[in-house]
Amino acid sequence: FIDKNGNIGSTDATSLLGLYNAAYLRTHGEKILDIAMSSTKKILKSIVNHLDPTIADEIRHHLETPLFRGTNRVETKRYISTYEKNSTRNETILEFAKLDYNLVQGLYCDELKDLTM
Asked: Could you tell me if 1 and 58 lie in one domain?
């Protein structure tokens, strides 16, 4: 991703978003990941308005709330909605994701009932 001059070598929005999210897991003093984060953020902000609306919405969301800061179930629900719009989606995987999400939500409701009674 980063060449010997410290520049980002990729312009693929999905790859840049992955690098941006991964760079958030850096530790103090990891200069390459510091550069990666600032560079990818700048590039993503500059290209977001020229992208397919589905990926653009995902990028805007992650620029506002990095992936690791979101809760798993909320991010799952959000990703299911995004994946539904994908023309190359796998219907079986999409259906499985929805079933899994709904089953877990049902378990959460049951646990909440048990705790409040």
From this structure: yes
